[in-house]
Known about the structure:
Belongs to the CpsD/CapB family. The chain has eleven helices and nine strands. The chain is α/β, with parallel strands linked by helices. The protein has one domain: Rossmann fold (3-Layer(aba) Sandwich). The chain has a nine-stranded mixed sheet, with helices on both faces. Helix 3 crosses helix 4.
Amino acid sequence: MRSKHFRDKSASKDKLVTKYESQSAYAESFRYIRANIDFAGIDQEYKSIMITSPDPDSGKSLISANLAITYAALEKKTLLIDLDLRKPTVHKIFPECYSSYGLTGLLQDIVKVEEAIVSADVPNLSVLPVGIVPTDPAALINSAKMTALFNEISAEYDRIIIDTPPVMAVSDAQTIASWVDGTILIIRNNYTKQDNAKKALQKLEVAGTKVIGTIFNNTQMKMNAYYYGNK
């Protein structure tokens, strides 16, 4: 498939090209990715999609955010979940969705689902932020309450995009991969080692997830990314 290119500026506003530059070639890159995901899901719909990477600082959170906006633009009820409990980022991309409760408050029964999930300044898009970073993220991810919550939320949305920790850093991504319909792996050009990319794919396959495809990303001053193929 053809490659698509888009830029990465320093300001969060400029990075959300699908929101602020929706008619640009860069925003079209994400619509191209969305279209290929949907095409890959002709036989099996990818309603819940996990975005992860082998390494930190690969741009997965920003890609998750822009992809979520493209689904919301189709008038699909879309939820972006920040499950990178150790280094949450989504609330920085969508500052209007900051919450001191979020997912951790929900799992601790401090708030209800409708209080933990926040509407973004994008039609049809909601965000479930982390809230307070938990002391034991792995325990929360692996809890029966987390699994039940995910199943409950899945019934309420047309598309769920999940930002997770890097696969090679902690076990969280493998656990989450077992819940979702499909996974996209972000590879950072000139940064991610080939061996790490292969090991990450192996871990995801062991978890039983469908690896939909890969986005190659350069998070320097300019960012070149493209989606390719189906696994």
